[in-house]
Amino acid sequence: MTAAPGRTPPPTASTTPARWRFPVFLLAVFVIAAVVGAYLDWTWWEVYNGVVITLGAAGLLVAAVVLLVPRRSRPVGLVLGAAAIGLIVGQNLGPSRSPLTVVEGTVALSLTSPVAAEGTAPATCTLSEDGRELSVSGDPNLRLAILASDPNAPSDVDQRAFVGAFVTVGDRWEPLARRDDLAEVSFLVGSAAAGAGETWMVSDGTSFLDLAWDPAGGSVAFDGLVPDSRHADAPVAPSDPIDLAGTMTWTCRPS
């Protein structure tokens, strides 16, 4: 149909939206990248992982600048630029983890299974400033007589097992938490025998945990631990599971 003389024909329904289609797409790329940047920064809270995000965004930004020079590749360059800026914005303006404080401490272990045994060792406590997250790592050189002795071993060989005791609270340490309370107790048990394997035991949703703690220390009674499959590919082959039960207590001393 021909427009009447002196009148401008109205834009067609398909022409006007097309003008905004690409800018809206760029905005969507920016928003998605910002969400991804914030999520990665929250999940990869370690400093070195934050650097990885920054380097990835910088790489995208460099590629975007290169692609903006030729006219044909400018749309791709704009998309990469929106993604790079979105990652940086999300990483820096998204929610941040509470800062951590690392102090020295001690851990004491009192086992009732597989045998009665007690011992203490140095520990490292990592505490969040908001008081909601905790990580205690006991020195794995704690020695306890909880494994069967080798009757053929020399009499001067200490056959007590090496035991590392660990407790964490918060999804910072275990993003795919096994329990609703975000608490986890785990142990590394290694035999003193040459060539022997190691055993990792950990709490899961069916384990019994009775936990109480504050920044100065705490305790957890535990039972019903299960083999920790996360260490199935460790260089040292896993040994048979050990039915560990008892109580772990710890103290954290500010320096």
Describe this structure in words.
With 255 residues, the chain is α+β, with helices and mostly antiparallel strands. The protein has 2 domains: 15-93; 100-253. It is built from 3 helices and 11 strands. It has helices spanning 15-43, 47-68, 74-93; strands at residues 100-113, 117-128, 134-138, 142-144, 161-169, 183-190, 198-202, 208-214, 217-223, 226-227, 245-253. Strands 1, 2, 3, 4, 5, 6, 7, 8, 9, 10 and 11 form an 11-stranded antiparallel β-sheet that branches. α1 packs across α3 (74-93) and α2 (47-68) packs antiparallel against α3 (74-93). The mean pLDDT is 86.
Keywords:
11-stranded antiparallel β-sheet, 255 residues, single chain, 3 helices, alpha+beta
Write the layout of secondary structure elements.
Layout: H1 15-43, H2 47-68, H3 74-93, E1 100-113, E2 117-128, E3 134-138, E4 142-144, E5 161-169, E6 183-190, E7 198-202, E8 208-214, E9 217-223, E10 226-227, E11 245-253
Antiparallel strand pairs: 1-2, 1-11, 2-3, 3-5, 4-5, 5-6, 6-7, 7-10, 8-9, 9-11
Helix pairs in contact: 1-3, 2-3
